[in-house]
């Protein structure tokens, strides 16, 4: 899914690649393309406007990380904005905290996948949460709609309310509530009638059913393939009933992706599930970041920028380089280096990037350095006095014992750290000879 949007944005960012900085004009050029791409992906116009404004503001204001290209950084900004629009990183869950039977009312147009989704969710609740579920079809318009739910219920092993021909939706709802109470049902799913178009009778019927059943969740089922139409549908439903979430079906198809973005913006409600096929287990909890990654198709770039942002802070590197220039590399500097290595997630990765650091890296490898070791080293430095940190030569045998005790380590661990510090100091001096500050900054930056 989302191929066209992904391709489009890919093209935009190619153009940006290789430029020195995120200039206002660059951002505006990129945003013009983003705007067209979103419109082509069937995102509703007001949503596009808001999105582009947000992203433009963020992108222009931001200082450029030197270790990534401006294009890569814009990808990250657009990615974050999409995730934010889709509801952030938290996974929206069904709220089932109410006295049983908790009612989930399913609403939507005919053919949106409402009946299918009802059975899929019932199956999820039964299998994943051990809930005793029951389903009832209130669709008296479409011939065989109630039969269809019955068949699906048999398929997923969830009870359905027995069909009594000739009953009205409100009568069925009342009967369903009674049956659910009698049978100690945890969750009752009501599959309401669909229509080909939104009309007032449908809305009134829905409201009457809501009045009777007091649903804890009202989920709007929308076909992601219907694009712009889906937005109009969502708007109509949201204006009439208190929606609590959206189910986006046919995400397995050739959806242009716009529906996902618009739906959240228009309803203000989280997309709780994504339908991904006709089979009964083809349903997923909706993950905004996963979808954004798929829209952009650039997950690796996003994580690269994230890493660069948190780990290789150019300012830190430059501060370090300056201190080296003055012939200083103390325990505080080493500590900073260790922190960076930790957040880069790589054993001695930073060291590996620096020529002349092979020896220090070998020393780290020899000490079997992993994350635990990094934490231990940090604790050792933490147990030193400020004076010892700036002048490690002070650490005589007695002091070493104190530091080891304080950090819950052995004296030999303290020695290992001191040895590593010495190797790194030596390497730093070598770098100084090779070109000093500029050389190092170039290595960190670019
Ligand atoms: P309703 O009229 O809204 O109740 O729609 P149905 O649940 O009867 O679904 C209409 C058709 O869409 C059926 O053939 C379903 O199998 C199919 N369908 C529903 N959800 C999905 C989905 O997520 N992906 C795909 N590929 N098909 C779906």
Automatic annotation (TrEMBL):
Keyword Ubl conjugation tagged: no
> Which Pfam family, an example, fits this chain?
SRP_SPB
SRP54-type proteins GTP-binding domain ranges (all copies): 270-283
Annotated positions binding GTP: 108-115, 191-195, 249-252
Q: Tell me what reaction this enzyme catalyses.
A: GTP + H2O = GDP + phosphate + H(+)
Which keywords does this chain's UniProt record carry?
Cytoplasm, GTP-binding, Hydrolase, Nucleotide-binding, Ribonucleoprotein, RNA-binding, Signal recognition particle
- Record flagged with keyword Cytoplasm: yes
Which InterPro entries is this protein grouped with?
AAA+_ATPase (IPR003593), P-loop_NTPase (IPR027417), Signal_recog_part_SRP54_M_sf (IPR036891), Signal_recog_particl_SRP54_hlx (IPR013822), Signal_recog_particle_SRP54_M (IPR004125), SRP (IPR004780), SRP/SRP_N (IPR036225), SRP54 (IPR022941)
Tell me which domain of life the UniProt entry assigns to the organism this sequence originates from: Bacteria
Report the EC code(s) recorded for this entry.
3.6.5.4
Q: Where in the cell is it found?
A: Cell inner membrane; Cytoplasm
Q: How does it sit in the membrane?
A: Peripheral membrane protein
Function description: Involved in targeting and insertion of nascent membrane proteins into the cytoplasmic membrane. Binds to the hydrophobic signal sequence of the ribosome-nascent chain (RNC) as it emerges from the ribosomes. The SRP-RNC complex is then targeted to the cytoplasmic membrane where it interacts with the SRP receptor FtsY. Interaction with FtsY leads to the transfer of the RNC complex to the Sec translocase for insertion into the membrane, the hydrolysis of GTP by both Ffh and FtsY, and the dissociation of the SRP-FtsY complex into the individual components.
Domains: entry comment: Composed of three domains: the N-terminal N domain, which is responsible for interactions with the ribosome, the central G domain, which binds GTP, and the C-terminal M domain, which binds the RNA and the signal sequence of the RNC.
* Family named by the database record: Belongs to the GTP-binding SRP family. SRP54 subfamily.
- What NCBIfam families does the record tag this protein with? ffh
What interactions and quaternary structure are annotated?
Part of the signal recognition particle protein translocation system, which is composed of SRP and FtsY. SRP is a ribonucleoprotein composed of Ffh and a 4.5S RNA molecule.
Name of the protein described by the UniProt record: Signal recognition particle protein
């Amino acid at each position: 899914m989302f191929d066209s949007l992904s391709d489009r944005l890919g093209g935009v960012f190619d153009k940006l690649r290789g430029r020195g900085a995120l200039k206002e004009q660059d951002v505006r050029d990129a945003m013009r393309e983003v705007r067209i791409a979103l419109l082509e992906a069937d995102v509703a116009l007001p949503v596009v406007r808001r999105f582009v404004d947000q992203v433009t503001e963020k992108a222009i204001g931001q200082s450029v990380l030197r270790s990534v290209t401006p294009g890569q950084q814009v990808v990250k900004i657009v990615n974050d904005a999409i995730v934010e629009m889709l509801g952030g990183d938290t996974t929206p869950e069904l709220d089932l905290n109410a006295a049983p039977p908790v009612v989930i009312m399913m609403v939507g147009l005919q053919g949106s996948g409402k009946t299918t989704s009802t059975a899929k969710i019932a199956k999820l609740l039964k299998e994943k949460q051990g809930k005793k579920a029951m389903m009832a079809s209130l669709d008296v318009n479409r011939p065989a709609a109630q039969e269809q739910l019955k068949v699906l219920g048999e398929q997923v092993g969830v009870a359905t309310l027995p069909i009594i021909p000739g009953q009205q939706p409100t009568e069925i709802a009342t009967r369903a509530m009674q049956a659910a109470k009698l049978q100690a049902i945890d969750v009752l799913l009501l599959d309401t009638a669909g229509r080909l178009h939104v009309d007032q009778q449908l809305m009134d019927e829905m409201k009457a059913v809501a009045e009777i059943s007091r649903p804890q969740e009202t989920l709007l089922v929308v076909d992601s393939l219907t694009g712009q139409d889906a937005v109009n549908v969502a708007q109509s439903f949201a204006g009439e009933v208190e929606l609590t979430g959206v189910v986006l079906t046919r995400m397995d198809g050739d959806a242009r992706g716009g529906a996902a973005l618009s739906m959240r913006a228009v309803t203000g409600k989280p997309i709780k599930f994504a339908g991904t096929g006709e089979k009964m287990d083809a349903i997923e909890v909706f993950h905004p970041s996963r979808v954004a990654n798929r829209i952009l198709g650039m997950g690796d770039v996003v994580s690269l920028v994230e890493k660069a942002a948190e780990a290789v802070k150019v300012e830190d590197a430059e501060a370090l380089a300056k201190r080296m220039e003055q012939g200083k590399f103390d325990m505080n500097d080493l500590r900073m280096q260790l922190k960076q290595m930790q957040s880069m997630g790589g054993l001695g990765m930073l060291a590996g990037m620096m020529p002349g650091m092979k020896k220090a890296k070998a020393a780290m490898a020899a000490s079997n350095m992993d994350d635990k070791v990094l934490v231990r080293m940090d604790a050792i430095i933490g147990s030193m006095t400020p004076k010892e940190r700036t002048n490690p030569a002070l650490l005589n045998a007695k002091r070493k014992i104190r530091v080891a005790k304080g950090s819950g380590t052995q004296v030999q661990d303290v020695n290992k750290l001191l040895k590593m510090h010495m190797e790194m100091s030596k390497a730093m001096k070598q770098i100084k000879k090779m070109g000093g500050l500029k050389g190092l900054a170039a290595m960190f930056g670019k």
